[in-house]
Design goal:
Number of helices of chain B: 13
CATH topology of the largest domain in chain C: D-Maltodextrin-Binding Protein, domain 2
Radius of gyration of chain B: 24 Å
Radius of gyration of chain C: 22 Å
Order of helices and strands of chain C: HEHEHEHEEEEEHHEHHHHEHEEEHHHHH
Low-confidence stretches of chain C: 1-33
Distance between the termini of chain B: 30 Å
CATH superfamily of one domain in chain B: MetI-like
CATH architecture of the largest domain in chain C: 3-Layer(aba) Sandwich
CATH class of one domain in chain B: Mainly Alpha
CATH superfamily of the largest domain in chain C: Periplasmic binding protein-like II
CATH class of the largest domain in chain C: Alpha Beta
Strand content of chain C: 5-15%
Strand order of the largest sheet of chain C: 2-1-3-13-6
Distance between the termini of chain C: 5 Å
Shape of chain B: globular
Oligomer: heterotrimer
Helix content of chain C: 40-55%
Mean pLDDT of chain C: 87
Helix content of chain B: 55-70%
Structural class of chain B: mainly alpha
Number of strands of chain B: 0
Chains: A mainly alpha, B mainly alpha, C alpha/beta
CATH architecture of one domain in chain B: Orthogonal Bundle
Largest sheet of chain C: 5 strands, mixed
Structural class of chain C: alpha/beta
Largest sheet of chain B: none
Chain lengths: ~280, ~325, ~425
C-alpha cells in the first residue's frame, strides 16, 4: 500500500468511528427504552429482546406528557415569533438606519450575550415575581425572548447589513415610510435568515429545562423537557421509562432538524464568513 | 445557549446571501433620503429598537445590576447588611471557587482543540473523503439534543462498567474511571461537550470553505504541496475570519453552556474537580442557601466573560484591518 | 448550627437597605390565594404515591370542601434550588415537602412553627426530631428513613455461610466477605459515592457499632469530637474498604441512586447500606432478589464498647410556609397528609416505613419485619445531624479518601473546622 493510501485510511477510519459515535448513543437509548426495569437493572448493556412500546406508553400517559407537549409547542412557537419580530426590527434599525445611540445599543446587546443564565437566575425570578409574570405563559415567552434576543439581534443585524442601500432608497422614493420599508422590503428579503434563526431558537427553547423550571413552577404549566427531567425524579429507579421519555422529547427536534436541515446549516453560517 | 455569536462591533458580513455586498463596512449607517427628515422618520429607528431594548434591559441587564448590588450584602445572620467586599473575600478563600476558576483556565487551554477538531473534519469533508455526504448530515446530529439528554446518555456509556471501558478492554487497555477520577473527569466532560457541539462549528467551517477558491488548492497540489502544507498555506489563511468566529462561539459555549452537562454528569465532583463558576453559583444559591455569595460569584463570572469578550473583539478588529 | 436561611422579607429588606429601591410588598405574593393551597413535593407525581395523595386529599376535602389543593411534583434533583429561589423571590407554595435534618433546619426561617397545630399527632407519629429546631416543630413526618445493612442470603449460601447467622463483628464480616468474593466474585459492599452520599450512609450505617453510647449521644447533641479515636476509626474503615477492594470498582463514579442499588440487586455485591423508605429499600430488593433472600443485619461491632442500633430519623415530611395566607388551613392540610388512612396507603403502595407507629407492617416480608422490630431501639442517624455545608465537604473528602489523595487526619481536621464554624 502506498503512503497516500495509508494516510487516507488514517483519516477515514477515525471519521467513520466518529460518525458511529454520533449515532450510537441514540441507538443505545432506544435499546434501554425497550427493556423492562428488571432487564435493565440486571444488565444495562445487553440488547433488548424485542422492540417494546410499554415504556413509551408509560412515559407518555402516566406523567401528563400530552399536556406538557402542548405547553411546549405553544410557548416555543410564541417565543420564536416574538424573537423574530423584535429581532428583525432591531436588526433593520441597527444595520440600515442612522440614529443617535445606535452603536451603544449594539454594544449593549453584545454585552447581554455574555451573561450566563445562572448569573441572573435569582434576580430574574424576583423581577418576574414582582411583575406578576411568574407562572404565566407570557412570562415564560418573555424569559425565552430575553435569553435568546441578543443572539437573534446580532445575527439579524449582521444579515441585514448585506442588503444594498439602493433597494431601500428605491422603496423610499416609491413613497414607503420607514415601517413600510421594514414590512415590504426587509421582512421578505430576510426570509432565509429569519427561517434559520427561527429554527435555531426553536431548538434552544425546546431543549431548555432551567428557565422553564424557574419561571413556570406549576405542574400544569410544565414544558415537555421539564416533564421528561422530572421522570427521572419520579421513577428514580426506572431508567427505561426515562429513556423512553428522552426519545419522545427528542423526536420533534430530530424531525424538525431533518425537515429543515438545509436552513439550519445556513442559519449557522449567517454572520460567520468573509464578506 | 449552545452557540453564540462574535462579540465584535466589527461587522462579520454574510456570504452567499442575495444581494450580499463585499465592500460593506459596518454597522452600516446611512441617512435616508432628504436632508430634513420628518419627525416620524427620525423617531422610526427608536420605535423599531424599543421592544428589543426594553426586553434586554428589563430582563437581562436589570437583573444583572440587581445581582451586583446584592453581592455587597451578607447572607444568613448578616442578611441585609452592607458587607463591602466580604463576599468576594470569602469567594477567593473557598478552594471550590478557586478550583472553578482554575477550570476556566483549563477550558481556555482546551479551546484550540475544540476548534481544531471540527476544522480538521470540515477540511476532510471538503476534500471529499469517502462518505463525506453521510458525515455531513450525521455529525450535526448531536447538536440537536439537549444537554440533559446528552449527559444522561453519556453517564451510562462512561460508567465504570460502561461501553467506553468495554471497548477499551477489547483492545487491551485498562478501564478508565472517566467520571470518577478527578484528573480525568473535567476533560471527559469537556469531551462530551465538544461531541455535543462540534456539529455547529463544523457547518460554519463548511460554509467558510464554500468561499474558498478551489483553484488555489488545486494549484498548490499540482505544485506538489502535501496535505499539511496545503492546510497551512492555503486553507488557514483563507479561512482566518471563519476560524476566529468559531473561536469566539466555542468560547462562549464552553464558558456559559456547560452547566447542563455538569449538572447531569458530575454534579461538580469527583472531589470538586469539575466545578465551574456557573455551577458554583447554582449550588451556593440553592443547596447552600447563600444567595449573596452566589451573586458575588455571578459578578465575577460576568467580569470574566466581559474580559474574554473584549479580548476577542480586539483580536477580531485587528484581523479585520488586515483584511 | 448556623442559621443561614433567608425569608423573603429579609431579602427584600436587604435589597432596600442596599439602596436598590425596588419595593415589593412582602407577604402578598403567596402561591395560593385564600381558597387554594399549593403543595410542592417530589412524590405526588409518582404513581406509587397516587393512592396516598388521594386519601390525604379526601381527608382534607371532608373538612374543607371549598378549598382547592394543587400538588406540584418537582424534579427531586432541582427541588431545593427551586425552593431556595422561591423563598428568595417571595413566590412559593403554601405547603412543602422536606427531607428531615439539614435541608429543613437551614430553612426554618421560611417555615411556620407547627407546635400548636400538630399537638394531637405527637404521640401517633414518630420521627419528629428531624423536623425540629430549637424546640419547635416545623414539619410533620410522613415516612421514617434510616440505614439498615441489607445482605443477599443467596450469596451467603453459595459461599457456604449460614444466611440466617450473619457476622456480628467487623472482623467476622471481613472474613465472610472474603469467602463470598472467592466463591461468587461478588463485592462485599455495593458502593456508590458519585454524589458523595456513600460516606453518609457509611457513617450512619456503621457508626453505632463503633462509637460508644456517650459519644453517639454527644454527636447528635452537636458536641462532635472529630478527632476521637472512634470517629477516626469510621473513616479509616472507609478508606480501608476502598483500598482492600470491599467496594465494587469505580465507587466514586457510581451514582448511589439506581447504580449502587442495581449492583446489589443484580447480585454483584453481598451487602449494601440501604434505605428504609422510597428507594433502595426492602420492597425493591424483595422484588429483585426474592423476599426470602433479603436479610437485614445490625451494624457489625467494631468497638466492643458500642451498642449497635438501627439509625433512623423522620424521612420526609410536610411543612408550612411562613408566608401562607391562612396558616391554620395549611396546617390542616399537613395533618391530612399525615393522617393514618393516608399513611397506610403510602406504606402499602409506595413501600415506605410510615411515620405512623400504629400501622401494621408484618406482611411485607422478613426484611421489613426485621427493620420494624428494630425501630423502638433505634437512634437518630449520625449524618442527619450535620449541616448541608458539612455534608457537602464530607462528600468531597470521602472521594479524596477513596482515591488516596488525602489522609484521614487531614480530612478529619477539615471537617472539625467546618463543623465548628457552623
Amino acid at each position: 500500500m502506498s503512503r497516500a493510501r495509508i494516510a487516507r485510511w488514517l483519516i477515514v477510519i477515525p471519521m467513520a468511528a466518529l460518525a458511529l459515535a454520533t449515532v450510537y448513543p441514540l441507538v443505545f437509548t432506544a435499546n434501554v427504552a425497550s427493556k423492562t426495569r428488571h432487564e435493565y437493572v440486571l444488565d444495562r448493556f445487553s440488547a433488548a429482546e424485542s422492540l417494546r412500546w410499554d415504556n413509551f406508553e408509560a412515559a407518555w400517559s402516566s406523567a401528563g406528557m400530552a399536556r406538557y407537549f402542548l405547553n411546549s409547542v405553544v410557548v416555543v412557537a410564541a417565543a420564536v415569533a416574538l424573537l423574530l419580530l423584535v429581532g428583525s426590527m432591531a436588526g433593520f434599525a441597527l444595520s440600515q438606519l442612522r440614529f443617535r445611540g445606535s452603536r451603544a445599543l449594539f454594544l449593549g446587546c453584545l454585552a447581554a450575550l455574555f451573561i450566563p443564565f445562572q448569573v441572573i437566575m435569582v434576580p430574574l425570578a424576583r423581577t418576574m415575581g414582582q411583575t406578576g409574570l411568574i407562572d404565566t405563559y407570557p412570562g415564560l415567552v418573555l424569559a425565552y425572548t430575553a435569553q435568546f434576543l441578543p443572539f437573534t439581534v446580532f445575527l439579524m443585524t449582521s444579515y441585514y447589513t448585506g442588503i444594498p442601500a439602493e433597494i431601500i432608497d428605491a422603496a423610499r422614493i416609491d413613497g414607503n415610510s420607514v415601517y413600510g420599508v421594514y414590512r415590504r422590503i426587509m421582512l421578505p428579503l430576510g426570509r432565509p435568515a429569519l427561517l434559520s434563526v427561527g429554527i435555531l431558537n426553536a431548538l434552544f427553547c425546546w431543549n431548555d429545562v432551567l428557565i422553564a423550571l424557574l419561571v413556570m413552577p406549576s405542574a400544569e404549566h410544565r414544558t415537555l423537557m421539564v416533564g421528561v427531567t422530572s421522570l427521572r425524579g419520579q421513577y428514580s429507579a426506572d431508567i427505561p421509562t426515562f429513556a423512553a421519555g428522552v426519545l419522545i422529547a427528542a423526536l420533534p427536534v430530530l424531525l424538525l432538524y431533518l425537515f429543515f436541515q438545509r436552513q439550519i446549516t445556513a442559519g449557522v453560517t449567517v454572520g460567520s464568513t468573509k464578506g | 445557549m449552545p452557540i453564540g455569536s462574535p462579540p465584535s462591533s466589527v461587522r462579520t458580513a454574510t456570504v452567499g446571501r442575495p444581494e450580499g455586498r463585499g465592500d460593506a463596512q459596518a454597522p452600516k449607517a446611512r441617512k435616508l433620503r432628504g436632508s430634513r427628515r420628518p419627525l416620524a422618520d427620525r423617531l422610526a429607528p427608536y420605535v423599531l429598537v424599543a421592544p428589543a431594548v426594553l426586553i434586554i434591559a428589563g430582563l437581562r441587564l436589570y437583573p444583572l445590576a440587581l445581582g451586583v448590588n446584592f453581592s455587597f450584602t451578607g447572607d444568613g445572620d448578616r442578611n441585609g447588611q452592607a458587607v463591602g467586599f466580604d463576599n468576594y473575600a470569602t469567594l477567593f478563600d473557598d478552594p471550590l471557587f478557586r478550583q472553578a476558576l482554575q477550570n476556566v483556565g483549563l477550558l481556555v487551554l482546551l479551546l484550540p482543540v475544540a476548534v481544531a477538531i471540527p476544522g480538521a473534519l470540515a477540511t476532510f469533508i471538503y476534500l471529499r473523503v469517502p462518505g463525506h455526504r453521510l458525515y455531513r448530515s450525521v455529525y450535526f446530529f448531536p447538536a440537536v439534543l439537549s444537554p440533559v439528554i446528552v449527559g444522561a446518555i453519556f453517564n451510562l456509556l462512561l460508567a465504570y462498567d460502561g461501553t467506553a471501558n468495554t471497548v477499551l478492554g477489547l483492545v487491551g487497555l485498562g478501564p478508565v474511571d472517566w467520571l470518577g477520577d478527578p484528573d480525568v473527569a473535567m476533560v471527559t466532560v469537556v469531551g462530551v461537550h465538544v461531541w455535543a457541539t462540534f456539529g455547529m462549528a463544523l457547518v460554519v467551517f463548511l460554509a467558510g470553505f464554500a468561499t474558498l477558491d478551489a483553484s488555489l488548492i488545486d494549484a498548490a497540489r499540482i505544485d506538489g504541496a502535501s496535505l499539511p502544507q496545503v492546510i497551512r498555506h492555503v486553507i488557514v489563511p483563507g479561512l482566518s475570519r471563519t476560524i476566529q468566529f468559531v473561536f469566539v462561539t466555542t468560547m462562549i459555549g464552553l464558558l456559559t453552556s456547560m452547566f447542563g452537562l455538569l449538572y447531569v454528569m458530575t454534579g461538580g465532583g469527583p472531589e470538586g474537580s469539575t466545578y465551574l463558576p456557573e455551577y458554583y453559583i447554582w449550588v451556593q444559591a440553592g443547596q447552600m442557601n447563600r444567595p449573596a455569595l452566589a451573586s458575588a460569584a455571578s459578578t465575577v463570572l460576568f467580569g470574566i466573560m466581559l474580559v474574554v469578550g473584549l479580548l476577542q473583539a480586539a483580536v477580531l478588529r485587528r484581523s479585520g484591518r488586515e483584511d | 448550627m448556623k442559621q443561614r436561611a433567608l425569608s423573603a422579607i429579609a431579602v427584600i429588606t436587604a435589597l432596600a437597605s442596599a439602596g436598590c429601591g425596588s419595593a415589593a410588598d412582602p407577604g402578598s405574593d403567596s402561591g395560593g390565594s385564600g381558597d387554594k393551597l399549593v403543595v410542592w413535593d417530589w412524590k405526588s407525581g409518582d404513581e406509587a404515591a397516587a393512592s396516598y395523595i388521594e386519601r390525604a386529599k379526601a381527608d382534607f376535602a371532608e373538612r374543607h370542601p371549598d378549598v382547592e389543593v394543587e400538588f406540584v411534583a418537582q424534579p427531586f434533583d432541582q427541588y431545593y434550588n427551586l425552593l431556595g429561589t422561591a423563598i428568595q423571590s417571595g413566590e412559593g407554595p403554601d405547603v412543602m415537602m422536606f427531607n428531615g435534618g439539614g435541608q429543613l433546619r437551614d430553612r426554618v426561617d421560611a417555615l411556620l412553627p407547627l407546635d400548636d397545630y400538630v399537638a394531637d399527632d405527637r404521640e401517633r407519629l414518630a420521627g419528629w426530631e428531624a423536623f425540629s429546631q430549637d424546640g419547635h416543630v416545623y414539619a410533620a413526618p410522613v415516612t421514617l428513613q434510616g440505614h439498615p445493612i441489607y445482605y443477599n442470603k443467596a450469596l451467603y449460601e453459595q459461599a457456604g455461610l449460614d444466611p440466617e447467622a450473619p457476622a456480628t463483628t467487623w472482623d467476622d464480616l471481613a472474613d465472610d466477605c472474603e469467602a463470598i468474593t472467592d466463591a461468587t466474585g461478588a463485592a462485599c459492599f455495593a458502593q456508590g459515592n458519585k454524589e458523595g452520599y456513600g460516606i453518609q450512609f457509611w457513617l450512619s450505617g456503621l457508626g453505632s457499632g463503633v462509637l460508644t453510647d456517650a459519644e453517639y449521644e454527644a454527636w447528635i447533641a452537636g458536641e462532635r469530637d472529630w478527632t476521637s479515636p472512634n470517629v477516626r476509626r469510621v473513616f479509616e474503615l472507609w478508606q480501608e474498604a476502598g483500598e482492600t477492594g470491599l467496594f465494587n470498582d469505580g465507587a466514586n463514579s457510581t451514582a448511589m441512586f439506581n447504580d449502587m442499588f442495581a449492583v446489589f440487586e443484580s447480585g454483584e455485591a453481598a451487602h449494601v447500606i440501604g434505605l428504609m423508605s422510597d428507594v433502595g429499600h426492602w420492597k425493591e430488593f424483595n422484588e429483585f432478589l426474592g423476599a426470602e433472600n433479603v436479610g437485614v443485619m445490625p451494624a457489625p461491632v467494631v468497638n466492643p464498647e458500642s451498642a449497635p442500633s438501627l439509625p433512623y430519623d423522620g424521612g420526609i415530611g410536610y411543612g408550612v410556609a411562613e408566608w401562607t395566607d391562612d396558616p391554620e388551613l395549611a396546617a390542616d392540610l399537613v395533618r391530612s397528609l399525615t393522617s393514618s388512612g393516608a399513611l397506610e396507603a403510602f406504606y402499602a403502595d409506595a413501600g415506605a416505613i410510615a411515620s405512623d407507629t400504629t400501622i401494621d407492617a408484618s406482611d411485607a416480608g422478613p426484611a421489613a419485619s426485621a427493620i420494624v422490630a428494630q425501630i423502638p431501639d433505634g437512634e437518630p442517624a449520625l449524618h442527619v445531624a450535620l449541616s448541608s455545608e458539612t455534608l457537602e465537604l464530607l462528600g468531597r473528602l470521602s472521594q479524596q479518601l477513596l482515591s488516596g489523595s488525602i489522609t484521614v487526619d487531614d480530612a478529619l481536621g477539615q471537617l472539625a473546622e467546618n463543623d465548628q464554624a457552623d
